[in-house]
Amino acid sequence: MVLTLYKMDASPPARAAMMVLDLLNLPAEYIDVNLLEKEHLSDEYLKMNPQHTIPVLKDDDFVLADSHAIAGYLVSKYAKDDSLYPQEPQSRAIIDHRLHFDSGILFPSLRYTVAPIVFFGAKEIASDNLEKIKSSYEFSEKFLTKQWMAGDEFTIADICCYASLSSLNEIVPVDSDKYPNLVSWLQRCSELEFCKKKNEAGAKQLGALVRGMLA
Ligand SMILES: N[C@@H](CCC(=O)N[C@@H](CS)C(=O)NCC(=O)O)C(=O)O
Q: Ligand 1: distance of its center to the CA of 14 in Å?
């Protein structure tokens, strides 16, 4: 098996895939795709991923886009057991819910906040985007009544949601009075070795880029 991941460190979904690879101790070649230079729109990249998003995983000839799909695939194929993404239907269903929550709510609240600033020179966060970020924090707070995003066990739901929420936190800091569960969970995740290695620098890089452009 030869694993290749197309990524950019500032990208939360790319970092989610990087964290899963690292947690599973899987050797991979990492290839940077510079979105600012439009490298994701090259003919070669579009052939691989017509949706032109990062991350993309190649496992020999098998090509897979979307961080959530990649996380599930890597665990199903390479993990020693299924604890990060259990087969048991109800546990898996809750994890799937949180993965869709990231895809549908968390990451879009970040993406549609960042894009006008980085690509179109907006000088403040639009109020409707601030509302979406607030909803992201409120929903997360309610899901985090136990230790982890999908209950008592750490799963790929934590990895994917953490990539988005740690990045949002760099841009609109999470208020510990309003969202104590979320702040504790962010802290718990930040102490995990693979989060330190594969998430911290990229989240800070994205935060600095956005704050720099707002200044
Ligand atoms: N649902 C996708 C979202 C991926 C995504 O939108 N990535 C952004 C970078 S953070 C991207 O590639 N944007 C370029 C584009 O959409 O053209 C995932 O989880 O992988």
A: 8
